[in-house]
Design goal:
It catalyses: adenosine + ATP = AMP + ADP + H(+). Its EC number is 2.7.1.20. Its main location: nucleus. GO terms for molecular function: adenosine kinase activity; ATP binding. The chain is α/β, with parallel strands linked by helices and 354 residues long. The chain has one domain: 3-Layer(aba) Sandwich (UDP-N-acetylmuramoyl-L-alanine:D-glutamate ligase), CATH 3.40.1190. 39% of the residues lie in helices and 22% in strands. It has helices spanning 2-21, 43-48, 66-73, 83-95, 112-123, 164-168, 171-179, 194-206, 218-223, 225-231, 250-259, 307-319, 325-339, and strands spanning 27-30, 34-40, 55-58, 77-81, 102-109, 127-133, 140-146, 149-155, 182-186, 210-214, 237-241, 270-274, 280-284, 287-291. β11 (237-241), α11 (250-259) and β12 (270-274) form a beta-alpha-beta unit. It is globular and about 55 Å long.
Length: 354
């Protein structure tokens, strides 16, 4: 029957129309590529290294032995990590096709861990362009799990060696930046290369593209405030979570963020705060809205570690397709809901988001 042979054709055309909307390299992320070393540890281990059960910190000298000890003492799992890299991976997973909608820049070492990160990026169809150097080994992040809590200790190592003039400024790399419509950088990268962030942020602003930033962790707002304030005038969408807002209430922080100067007047700044299971607060101008998250049974939660990164990834996947903010938040909630059912920032083969 002609009907049957005609059907697949019609379907195929539909798909092609969809992919026309999103071009390769439309979403650009830059950050710290880290290999996560995850283990369920005990309270003694946390106490020994002075760790809070729920926190995100940078490794100091006193934590150096910890990375060997966690591998020797506990059953560890390795996952490709780094906040920004997680988010762009999730965005790519949500979009599915075409591949390489998401671009990622960061610095790794020439070693086994670096090879793993390259492999994982390729598997997830992210267009990763790493600056590779041999001074420092690939960065790691120890995720010390006790019950529902996660204490994250990042040893940036190579990630901290990202250099604007050695990588971002190179013509073939900058071309990829220019191809993008939406930019995302986690606040963690402020400790590495503010000048790289500013170059990207200014490009976005001058071309009326969307620049987004995440406050990431309390220590960024506390100790890297000066760098943060240099970048803020270019931020169109600011993400945060309840731990980055630990000192003040979310509405107050959102209002403060709204009142900070903004270079591109064509876009009003949007502030999006996730609060775990409490729902997500979005402010735009004077308007404050709360969106409930998808209900989930406590028993189904395996690992909340990647939830924040996944939310941002889901949000960006719709933002890059020029969908409404409500739709972006729905996609963020969907992605987070999927990720927390899996260990590490990992996910099933295909999304089921409508």
């Amino acid at each position: 029957s002609t009907m049957a042979t005609g059907e697949p054709k019609a379907k195929k055309i539909k798909l092609e129309e969809k992919t026309d909307l999103i071009s390769e390299n439309a979403l650009f992320g830059m950050g710290n590529p880290l290999l996560d070393i995850c283990a369920v540890v005990d309270k003694d281990f946390l106490d020994k290294y002075g760790l809070k059960p729920n926190d995100q910190i940078l490794a100091e000298d006193k934590h150096k032995e910890m990375f060997d000890e966690i591998v020797k003492k506990f059953k560890v799992e390795y996952h490709a990590g780094g906040a920004t890299q997680n988010s762009v991976k999730v965005a790519q997973w949500m979009i599915q096709k075409p591949h390489k909608v998401a671009t990622f820049f960061g610095c790794i070492g020439k070693d086994k861990f670096g090879e793993i990160l390259k492999e994982k990026a390729e598997e997830s169809h992210v267009d990763a362009h790493y600056y590779e150097q041999s001074e420092e080994p690939t960065g790691t992040c120890a995720a010390c799990i006790t019950g529902d809590n996660r204490s994250l200790v990042a040893n940036l190592a190579a990630a901290n060696c990202y250099k604007k003039e050695k990588h971002l400024d190179l013509e073939e790399n900058w071309k990829l930046v220019e191809k993008a419509k939406v930019y995302y950088i986690a606040g963690f990268f402020l400790t590495v290369s503010t000048e790289s962030i500013l170059k990207v942020a200014k490009h976005a602003s001058e071309n009326n593209k969307i620049f987004t930033l995440n406050l990431s962790a309390p220590f960024i707002c506390q100790f890297f405030k000066e760098s943060l304030m240099k970048v803020m005038p270019y931020v169109d969408v600011l993400f945060g979570n309840e731990t980055s807002a630990v000192f003040r209430n979310i509405e107050e922080i959102s209002k403060k963020a709204q009142s900070l100067p903004k270079v591109n007047k064509k876009r009003q700044r949007i502030v999006v705060f996730t609060q775990g299971k409490e729902g997500t607060v979005m402010t735009k101008g004077d308007k404050v809205e709360t969106f409930p998250v998808i209900e989930i049974d406590q028993k189904e939660i395996v690992d909340t570690n990647g939830a924040g990164d996944a939310f941002v990834g889901g949000f960006l996947s719709e933002l890059v397709q020029e969908k409404s903010l409500e739709q972006c938040i729905r996609a963020g909630h969907y992605a987070a809901n999927v990720i927390i059912r899996h260990a590490g920032c990992t996910f099933p083969e295909k999304p089921d988001f409508h």
